[in-house]
Amino acid sequence: MTDLDRLRELLLSRSVTRGDFTLSSGRKSTFYIDARRTTMSAEGLALIGSLGVERLVARGWAPRAVGGLTLGADPVAYAIAAASRNRSPAPVVDAFTIRKQAKTHGTGRRIEGCFEAGQSVVVVEDVITTGGSAQEAIAALSAEGAKILGVFAVVDREEGGREVLERAGHAVETLLTAKGLGL
After folding, report:
1. Which residues carry out catalysis?
2. Please, is 6 exposed, middle or buried when counting C-beta atoms within 10 Å of its C-beta (0-12, 13-18, 19+)?
3. Which end of the chain is more exposed for a tag (fewer CB within 10 A), N or C?
4. How many structural domains comprise the chain?
5. For the domain that residue 147 is a member of, what is the CATH number?
């Protein structure tokens, strides 16, 4: 069994629920993917980190850091950053997180962690539906002068988000799709 096959099994057993759901986009769906139940598991972190680094290298992306909107993107970014330390010749990448709003105390930052203005970055997601979270992350990073190399997600629900991001000029790489999960 490949790592991708095992990740598919984990997502199906831990993260996919069937029923009637309203997604954060407001859309209705007969299935819900709570990817955090996989991305925050020990095995999921290891698989996503390794597979994520492989995909970054295959794309020719050499970001200085990876991250996205908290909370869904956080474990994906941390997994890739940790795995990058063991994947020569892949570059070592750091991780950052983007708050929903800038802090009103301390430094007042919206982007936390290992991010510096002007860096090359890859925006990460757990699940892409409409592309809205990735677009919000891209806007926050662009405002800080980041060079966006692309968007990486664990799952694409195949509901138009990928196309929205690509029309905006952002390459998208995903590990799995709703169809690939049998949804």
Report:
1. 103, 105
2. middle
3. N
4. 1
5. 3.40.50.2020
